[in-house]
Amino acid sequence: MTSPRRLLGAGVVLALALGTAGCGIRATSVPVDAGAAPTRVSCDQPRTASSTARGTVTVDVYLVCSQRVSPVRRVVPDRHSDRLATARTLLAELLRKPDQAEERGGFASEVPGGLSVNGPFPGDPAETLRLNQDPDDLPSYAVGQLVCTFAGTAAGAADRSVVLGGPDRGVPPLRYRCDDALRTRPDAGSTEGTRA
């Protein structure tokens, strides 16, 4: 006759075997590249001193961290109400390599080197900023970085939207807003703009 202790031990072994066998992931003979293991980044905004020097201002510059566009504070020259000068100053910040504190927080920029900005073509809305690359051709999140950095400054429109176009005079510029889609979806730059 089997003892209760032996039956209990056999039941525990059977339960453990069933629990580990049915983990819900099917075995496959095809290699699967799931990418690099996720890294833990804080995405905490580094502490930056507020602007105290005359002729400077503290602004939010949007960088990429943990698959979203998030602000970091930087001190830049105050361009007052000059739209193009403000846009060029802010673009220079987006092109600048993140400092050590920003890198430790996991921040990076996808705005490509060599990107430049000019004013509107004849017939464009007055607030248009024309890039030397079509916004649709920019890397993931770059449009979100530009729009969110420009919005609410002299580079943007009065309603906090940003009108961007490319170098082709035949392609009308589009109006963008710094919304959740633009901050979190890598493809939003090519789908979120509306006719200006």
UniProtKB/TrEMBL annotation:
Entries under PROSITE patterns matching the protein: PROKAR_LIPOPROTEIN, TAT
The keyword Signal belongs to this UniProt entry's keyword annotation: yes
InterPro entries: TAT_signal
Keywords: Signal
Comp. bias regions, Basic and acidic residues: 176-186
Range of residues in the leader sequence: 1-23
Region of interest (Disordered), ranges: 101-135, 161-196
Domain of life (superkingdom): Bacteria
UniProt-recorded name of the protein: Lipoprotein
Origin species: Streptantibioticus rubrisoli
